[in-house]
């Protein structure tokens, strides 16, 4: 401690002694020249000097000068700054802990929701299909997605415009972001009420078979089906980066909720428009050609996202979503339908959807988060673009080496079998009638 005090300036060290004389009568002796200033740095073992004419010992003191006051004020200022920094550190720690708590709460809610909603969604879908099959209207099942796309595009635009027109806060405790969740909860409640009136059909109990394992065997036994499975896995991983980070990128560029809603709506409406040219597109390019075109469009979208320059620049490129999403799945479903056995089409479609939206999107989200945290969002988009371009080249090479297989349409075969059976019955009936007429004519002549 003595060493530290010795390092202080002389006025500050002198200021540690009493500022005034011990007694008023000794003021003259206290300020006499023979007295020495006590140097605390010399150690406590030195005796204290006294004046020659004084009967009482006294300390030689100096009042702190202007420099000493400045140093003392400077130290107090630094101490206050240190307290402020410590308070900010504690406050930031509490804030981050609160963020982590909110993140864990939201993550737990999402996991519970998905665990409960996924089997229910599958059950409702199967029940609806069974009912349409019972009333011989399965062709309507393939067009239900159109209404879903119309609802999604309308909802995205309406809720985005509504929230964008609100003030910063509805109240002191409700933010604009919460309005999206309130709107989602309202629509889910309305859909729950509407689901009560859905028609149901309970088919007869049949022997349960593991269609998932059978679907895996069908995909693994055909080269084109394997290519389709790998394609949807990679596109699911690449598409997850767009779903996870595109809106954050738009917000950084100054985009509001309106532009975000329009970006969703443009992609969905473009896919609806392309649906009217679905048959012509598949006949012109074939399923493999459409898959190649879809991969190229998705790679172009990702490359474009990495060079965004303003708030609305994302809107034009969203038109390519009609090919990168809609046309891709049309071609993939057509490919797997060629290898599907009767009754396995929907199982194959569900397996590929799960592979894309579950496996591919999950892995892409994890890897994308690490890449964005390390290298940035632009690097992630360009890396996904390069990966899709490489897979496109490999896809075309492998596709050209696979042997061509003749398409087998089981429904046409069944129709042909029934027509052949009817023709044979008519021929048998005709032969029997001709024979009977001949016998009758022979009897008359006899």
CATH superfamily (homologous) name of the domain at 209-407: MFS general substrate transporter like domains
* Average pLDDT for all residues: 75
- CATH class of the domain at 209-407, named Mainly Alpha
Beta-strand content estimate: under 5%
**Would you report the number of β strands?**
0
Biggest sheet architecture: none
Q: What best-fitting shape do the alpha-carbon axes yield?
A: globular
Radius of gyration based on Cα positions: 42 Å
Low-confidence stretches: 1-64, 419-423, 442-446
What is the helical fraction, as a range of percent?
over 70%
Oligomer: single chain
Plain-language structure description:
- With 446 residues, the chain is mainly α.
- Among the domains are: 1-64, no CATH class; 209-407, MFS general substrate transporter like domains (Growth Hormone, Chain: A, Up-down Bundle).
- 73% of the residues lie in helices and 0% in strands.
- The chain has 15 helices and no strands.
- The chain has helices at residues 2-6, 10-14, 27-30, 66-134, 144-164, 176-195, 211-220, 223-252, 257-275, 278-305, 314-317, 321-339, 345-374, 377-401, 410-445.
- Helix 8 packs antiparallel against helix 12, helix 8 crosses helix 13 (345-374) and helix 10 crosses helix 12.
- It is globular and about 120 Å long.
- The N and C termini lie far apart (149 Å).
- The model is unreliable at 1-64, 419-423 and 442-446 (pLDDT under 50).
Topology:
Layout: H1 2-6, H2 10-14, H3 27-30, H4 66-134, H5 144-164, H6 176-195, H7 211-220, H8 223-252, H9 257-275, H10 278-305, H11 314-317, H12 321-339, H13 345-374, H14 377-401, H15 410-445
Helix pairs in contact: 5-6, 5-9, 8-10, 8-12, 8-13, 8-14, 9-12, 10-12, 10-14, 13-14
């Amino acid at each position: 401690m003595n060493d530290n005090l010795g390092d202080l300036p002389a006025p500050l060290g002198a200021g540690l002694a009493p500022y005034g004389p011990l007694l008023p009568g000794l003021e003259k002796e206290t300020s006499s020249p023979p007295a020495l200033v006590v140097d605390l740095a010399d150690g406590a073992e030195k005796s204290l000097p006294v004046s020659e004419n004084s009967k009482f010992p006294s300390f030689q003191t100096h009042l702190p000068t202007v420099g000493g006051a400045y140093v003392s004020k400077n130290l107090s200022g630094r101490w206050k700054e240190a307290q402020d920094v410590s308070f900010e550190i504690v406050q930031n720690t509490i804030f981050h802990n609160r963020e982590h708590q909110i993140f864990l709460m939201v993550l737990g809610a999402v996991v519970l929701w998905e665990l409960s909603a996924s089997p229910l969604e599958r059950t409702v879908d199967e029940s609806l299909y069974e009912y349409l099959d019972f009333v011989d209207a399965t062709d309507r099942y393939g067009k239900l997605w159109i209404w879903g796309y119309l609802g999604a595009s309308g909802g995205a635009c309406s809720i985005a415009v509504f929230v964008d027109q609100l003030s910063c806060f509805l109240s002191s405790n409700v933010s604009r972001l919460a309005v999206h969740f309130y709107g989602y909860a309202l629509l889910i409640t309305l859909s729950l009420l509407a689901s009560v009136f859905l028609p149901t059909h309970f088919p007869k109990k049949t022997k349960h078979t593991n269609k998932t394992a059978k679907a895996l065997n069908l995909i693994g036994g055909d080269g084109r089906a394997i290519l389709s499975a790998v394609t949807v896995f990679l596109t699911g991983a690449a598409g997850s980066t767009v779903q996870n980070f595109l809106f954050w990128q738009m917000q950084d560029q100054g985009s509001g909720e309106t532009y975000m809603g329009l970006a969703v709506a443009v992609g969905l409406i473009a896919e609806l428009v392309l649906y009217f040219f679905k048959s012509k597109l598949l006949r012109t390019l074939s399923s493999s050609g459409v898959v190649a075109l879809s991969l190229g469009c998705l790679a172009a979208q990702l490359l474009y996202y990495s060079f965004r320059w303003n708030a609305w620049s994302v809107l034009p490129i969203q038109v390519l979503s009609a090919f990168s999403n809609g046309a891709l799945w049309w071609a993939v479903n057509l490919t797997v339908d060629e290898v599907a056995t009767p009754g396995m089409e929907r199982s194959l479609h569900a397996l590929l959807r799960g592979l894309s939206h579950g496996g591919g999107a999950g892995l892409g989200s994890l890897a994308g988060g690490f890449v964005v945290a390390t290298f940035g969002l632009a690097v992630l988009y360009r890396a996904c673009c390069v990966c899709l371009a490489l897979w496109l080249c490999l896809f075309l090479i492998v596709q050209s080496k696979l042997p061509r297989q003749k398409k087998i349409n089981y429904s046409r075969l069944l129709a042909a079998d029934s027509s052949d059976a009817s023709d044979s019955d008519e021929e048998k009936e005709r032969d029997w009638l001709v024979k009977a007429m001949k016998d009758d004519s022979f009897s008359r002549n006899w």
